[in-house]
């Protein structure tokens, strides 16, 4: 435990909302419930959420993370991560005789459904997102012949479509809102008849965390974002903080990664965390800062969040069956 001190003038502005979104919370609980329900190992295809600490903690409990479906031995359970998978991955699992639990965030599934619908109507779909990101691979896989990836405004010049009167843009859920709008503007200039998705693809959690970090950037000389290097929404928060005028912003997985030199001349530190980050990691950073004179913590609240998602349906079904068996068992026992 660090010694908490407050040196005059030094303070921390703590963003709210920050950390876990509803999709991450659900995915992490799904792995824990599956482990309780079926015992270890539970195989998870790809990191369940992009956070080092979460992955390591679940590994200790018996989750086994794999990159390819073929790595899961026949007859086992495989869970799909919050980022979603292409239909071909469901086929691979069926071929490998695997039981599947799909922890894809419902807000990612929504984008998949939009892609399927527009592809059916024979639109060219311009998917704004980061090449190679798991979510983009999954969404593209829903309609590979109709989807073209647009990785930022600089990609627009080379985008081609079959029919300029039938073009729609969709996006990854965890992008920078401002940069995405820049890309959309550039696309609209090129394709004036481009239509927009029926509702926001960038999710509520990504949007709220970006609004909050912008607010921090108004006053903080240093913004610390807790999150992993492969977490799209966490990386975006660092970029958004810098764009909003923060003189410095850094991404750290753990308090131990903070460099004391960053604090030189800093009176106000802004602190927040990505959507895949448990709050215990933010608390550690608060302690670390407290031990260095930044014990005065002020919460800066820019939104209320109350959204939650129910567990994946495969787990709910099995949990219901288990509860029914338990009740039947108990009834049987008491009748004796
Ligand atoms: S960041 Fe958004 S899309 Fe991704 S899991 Fe969280 S709520 Fe779902």
Textual characterization of the structure:
This protein has 336 residues and is of the alpha/beta class. The chain is 40% helix and 17% strand. The protein contains ten helices and twelve strands. The strands form three sheets. Strands 10-9-11-1-12 form a five-stranded parallel sheet, with helices on both faces. Strands 3-2-4-5 form a four-stranded parallel sheet. α4 runs parallel beside α5 and α7 packs parallel to α8. The chain starts with 10 loop residues before the first strand and ends with a helix. Bound molecules: iron/sulfur cluster (SF4).
Write a compact overview of the structure shown.
The chain is an alpha/beta fold and 336 residues long. Helices cover 40% and strands 17% of the residues.
What tags apply to this protein structure?
12 strands; 10 helices; 336 residues; four-stranded parallel beta sheet; 17% strand; five-stranded parallel beta sheet; binds iron/sulfur cluster; alpha/beta
Secondary-structure topology with pairs:
Elements: E1 11-16, H1 22-38, E2 42-45, H2 52-61, E3 63-66, E4 77-80, H3 87-95, E5 99-102, H4 106-120, E6 124-128, H5 134-140, E7 147-150, E8 167-171, H6 177-190, H7 204-219, E9 222-226, H8 232-243, E10 249-252, E11 268-273, H9 279-290, E12 297-301, H10 313-335
Parallel strand pairs: 1-11, 1-12, 2-3, 2-4, 4-5, 6-7, 6-8, 9-10, 9-11
Helix pairs in contact: 4-5, 7-8
Which oligomerization state do the chains in this entry correspond to? single chain
Rounded to an integer in angstroms, the radius of gyration calculated over CA atoms is 22 Å
Helix content: 40-55%
Number of helical segments? 10
Structural class: alpha/beta
SSE string, helices as H and strands as E: EHEHEEHEHEHEEHHEHEEHEH
Number of strands: 12
Distance between the termini: 54 Å
């Amino acid at each position: 435990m660090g010694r908490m001190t407050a040196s005059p003038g030094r303070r921390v502005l703590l963003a709210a909302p920050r950390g876990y979104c509803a999709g991450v919370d659900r995915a992490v609980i799904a792995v824990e419930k599956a482990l309780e329900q079926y015992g270890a190992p539970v195989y998870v295809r790809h990191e369940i959420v992009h956070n080092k600490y979460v992955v390591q903690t679940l590994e200790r409990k018996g989750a086994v993370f794999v990159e390819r479906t073929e790595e899961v031995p026949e007859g086992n359970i495989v869970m799909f991560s919050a980022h979603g998978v292409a239909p071909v991955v469901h086929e691979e699992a069926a071929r490998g005789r695997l039981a599947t639990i799909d922890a894809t965030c419902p807000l990612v599934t929504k984008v998949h459904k939009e892609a399927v619908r527009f592809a059916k109507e024979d639109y060219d779909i311009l998917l704004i997102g980061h090449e190679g990101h798991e979510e983009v691979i999954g969404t593209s896989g829903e309609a590979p012949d109709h989807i073209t990836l647009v990785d930022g405004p600089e990609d627009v010049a080379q985008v081609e479509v079959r029919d300029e009167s039938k073009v729609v843009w969709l996006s990854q859920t965890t992008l920078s809102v401002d940069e995405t709008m820049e890309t959309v503007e550039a696309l609209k200039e090129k394709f004036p008849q481009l239509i927009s998705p029926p509702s926001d693809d960038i999710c509520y959690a990504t949007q709220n965390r970006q609004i909050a970090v912008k607010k921090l950037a108004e006053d903080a000389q240093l913004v610390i974002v807790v999150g992993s290097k492969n977490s799209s929404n966490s990386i975006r928060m660092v970029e958004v903080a810098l764009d909003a005028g923060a003189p410095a912003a850094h991404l750290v997985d753990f308090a131990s990664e903070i460099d004391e030199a960053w604090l030189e001349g800093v009176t106000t530190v802004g602190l927040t965390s990505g959507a895949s980050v448990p709050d215990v990691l933010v608390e550690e950073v608060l302690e670390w800062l407290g031990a260095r004179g930044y014990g005065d913590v002020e919460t800066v609240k820019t939104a209320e969040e109350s959204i939650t998602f129910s567990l994946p349906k495969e787990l709910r079904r099995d949990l219901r069956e288990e509860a029914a068996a338990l009740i039947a068992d108990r009834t049987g026992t008491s009748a004796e």
